[in-house]
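Long-time lurker. I teach an intro course on protein structure, and each term I like to show students one example going from raw sequence to a predicted 3D structure in token notation. This year I'd like something fresh instead of my usual example. Would anyone be willing to generate the tokens for the chain below so I can use it in lecture? Attribution to the forum is fine with me.
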Amino acid sequence: MQIIIIKRLDNGVSYLVPTKEALSFATIGQIAEKDVPHNLPYWIVDNSILPKDDTFRDAWEIGDSFGEPDGFGGESNQFDAELLKSYRERKK
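-- Reply from a regular --
Happy to contribute to a lecture. Here you go:
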């Protein structure tokens, strides 16, 4: 399963796990652009890279092995109107 890793302004690391419902109509990139705070870098990775022990979550770092970010958070925290319209029509 893919997740979104975010480098915060304080250089800490957060991650997002997209829901199955969101993935049913949007790509993980579209979800990242919507949900990652504006201009923060994000990487789309396999969840197997997460440390198994959450005890030291504050010590997580994004290393050079991550490479360049896959993108940056968008200006809006909403999905594109056409994407939502398509989703709503499929749910009818």
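Some talking points for your students: The mean pLDDT is 89. The beta strands are 2-7, 13-16, 41-46, 71-72.
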